[in-house]
Design goal:
The chain has 250 residues and is of the alpha/beta class. The protein has one domain (36-65, 82-230): P-loop containing nucleotide triphosphate hydrolases (Rossmann fold, 3-Layer(aba) Sandwich). Helices cover 29% and strands 27% of the residues. It has helices at 51-58, 81-91, 107-117, 126-135, 151-163, 181-196, 208-211; strands at residues 8-20, 23-35, 40-44, 66-71, 74-75, 92-96, 169-173, 200-204, 216-221, 224-230.
Amino acid sequence: MPAVESILRLEGIEKRYDLGGEAEVRALRGVDLIVNPGSYVAIMGPSGSGKSTLLNLLGCLDRPTSGRYFLGGLDVSGMPDDALSEARGERIGFIFQSYNLIAQLTVMENIQVPLLYQGKDVRLHHDRCLQLAQAVGLENRLHHRPSQLSGGQQQRVAIARSLVNDPLLILADEPTGNLDSRTGLEVLELIDKLNAGGKTIVLVTHDERIATRAHRVIHMRDGLIEREVVNRAEPSAPPPQAEGQPSPSA
């Protein structure tokens, strides 16, 4: 994909839920946010702060009630379902707390799933999938199924899967929430490596220690960005990759 000025830009994003009658919940109340290429941003906030709603909107899993969302320069705010699904598959990689692997598929097949959703011939991308499996240390587990893997190994599969379409943005939702401390640290170090290789990361966490790994931390409350904390300077935008090349971390 061509280089863009910002990976995502939110302008006055609101999300309201109609509870019937005159009852209404304002989950997001005018959120503005810019995330540039190569940034690592953590989102924190108490229950009901709007962080989960925000993550769903960033992942194109939901739409704002009002405001505009630009993803890689593309306004996805009012896209029809098919176009939004295509943008999500091409531009966003997801890492979930519960891994969301398909139990009947092998490690290699789970990594290939986003390619299938995009209608791509997985045979043409075999080498890339193998490189990603090697990058997350699972080259000896290619034919294992999720039930044969530890939690940390399953999350590594999920990380490789998130990279297979070379997305603009990686969204990580409590990626270590189901892992013990040591395994969680290994996964966080892998995410750090992805970011160091040029990938843009937005991570939701409730753990301050995890948030300190990000360049900046967005604190939410009552549907608004309450404050931002800068941990360290964000990098300059990485140079665009050659077409067809694996991500820098692969």
